[in-house]
Amino acid sequence: MFSKIFILLCIVIALSSAVPAGGGWGGNPWTAAGGNGLAPGGNPFIPPWVAQAPWFPQWTPCTVIGSSCVDCTTKQVCTKIGGIQRACADPTLPYCNLGECSATPSAECQPSTTVPAETA
After folding, report:
1. What whole-number distance in Å separates Cα of residue 12 and Cα of residue 38?
2. Intra-chain end-to-end CA distance of the chain, in Å
3. Over the stretch 10-38, which tens digit does the pLDDT of each residue have?
4. CB atoms within 10 A of CB 58
5. Is 50 helix (H, G, I), strand (E, B) or coil?
6. Which contiguous run of DSSP H or E holds residue 13?
7. CB-based contacts of 55-59 (< 8 A; 24+ apart in sequence)
8. Could you confirm whether the keyword Signal appears in this record (predicted)?
9. pTM here?
10. Fewest beta carbons less than 10 Å away: which of 28, 42, 58, 119?
11. Which pLDDT score is estimated for 18?
């Protein structure tokens, strides 16, 4: 008797945790825009503090397939189904240059080499 109740309880817990709440017909319950309080990517299995970490890749919409730089330290790789943004977290390759993490910064990200004039 105990084993039947235990198995039934396990099935109820598994079903209730696997079915996303809300969304309605046509809505995507995995997105945070639905107001379900999930992580930014909408995945209930990834805690928000992990999903918002700079080293964790972020999914973004894309229009062009390929790799590009979002800013001086973040690259974006776009595919047919979407894109993923990833920070260049390797200390030996901290800059994004031509869509790849690189040791040398691009022309836009070069630190200024001009020496400021001293005021007398």
Report:
1. 22
2. 91
3. 787 776 666 555 444 444 444 544 444 54
4. 18
5. helix
6. helix 2-18
7. 55/87, 55/89, 57/84, 57/85, 57/86, 58/84, 58/85, 58/86, 59/83, 59/84, 59/85
8. yes
9. 0.50
10. 119
11. 61
